[in-house]
Amino acid sequence: MSIAIKSISEISVTGADALPAYIFDAKEPLVLRGLASDWEIVSAAHGSDKHVADYLLNFDQGTPLTVYQGNPEIKGRIFYNESMTGFNFERTRQTMSAVLAALFAEADDAEPNTYYVGSTLVDRWLPGFRAHNDLPIGHREHLTSLWFGNRSLIAAHYDVPSNIAVCAAGRRQFTLFPPEQAENLYIGPLDLTPSGQPISLVNADAPELDQFPKYRTALQAACQATLEPGDAIFIPSMWWHQVKSLDAFNVLVNYWWRATPAYMGAPLNALQHAVLSIRELPPEQRVVWRDIFERYVFAATEQDWSHIPKHARGVLDDIDEARAQSIRAQLRRFLQ
């Protein structure tokens, strides 16, 4: 296969304080070269992998974290088992020091075990880290997470929040696909996933094009970048992205923020409930419900229910945290 993947647009910045404000509303991916060049952990990365590990351990509280561990045969690919009844890795709980010791013990092996630690909240597991390694996110509600391990391949998936991912140590290759490429990525199950989000079933390292021929079209729409320590990438909400860690030791820090408050809920939950309650209806009823969703969700305007007194609009009125909690309580009663 010889499809040339275009490069992601990029700009050069000089440290975290130069993070452009427009990035928080951007709709296209962007590489931010040098964004975290002034971080202490990036300075450690210019020394050695051991310097980086020791730096992380300065903040470690000894609290066990979740580790994905796989045999050498998986070659870093975090995926399903052959029967798709489970996964090709084991979830374990280990301390950071134990994971790092095991990882470094195999660092020179041609085919090491895979060690992958993902989405670990920095403020909980590494208090104090952000005093010397942080981005000016402002007052936006956000999560800051740490990811580390050895060489790995994470299948294309989407996230609802927008994302700035900072390469702190090692190199990472990001391949992004626009949201509309979902049909060409051969997405797996909604409710059996390695980490919560549906993933592409295509092996990005060796695409099975006879089995997944539309993946060629996805690649033609894709864009790609390789990050060095100190570089960052902005990934817009709902863009599919696959991530390949290229070195024997890699560390990434990412920032997630949503366009709506967290109390508004997860859209994937609504999709699964719609599958349960609507998908098996007769075709003519599904058409009616499609129109109802269009009216109340996708093309909703206040004018559609202006004839209802504001005090009586219920879920049609503006949703604040109290109303969101009320809706959740009602849904729990309905689902019992």
UniProtKB/TrEMBL annotation:
Gene3D superfamilies, per the entry: Cupin
Alphabetized Pfam families for the sequence: Cupin_8
UniProt-listed PANTHER family: HYPOXIA-INDUCIBLE FACTOR 1 ALPHA INHIBITOR-RELATED, HYPOXIA-INDUCIBLE FACTOR 1-ALPHA INHIBITOR
Annotated ranges, domain JmjC: 124-272
Signal peptide: none
Record protein name field: Cupin
Family annotation (SUPFAM superfamilies): Clavaminate synthase-like (SSF51197)
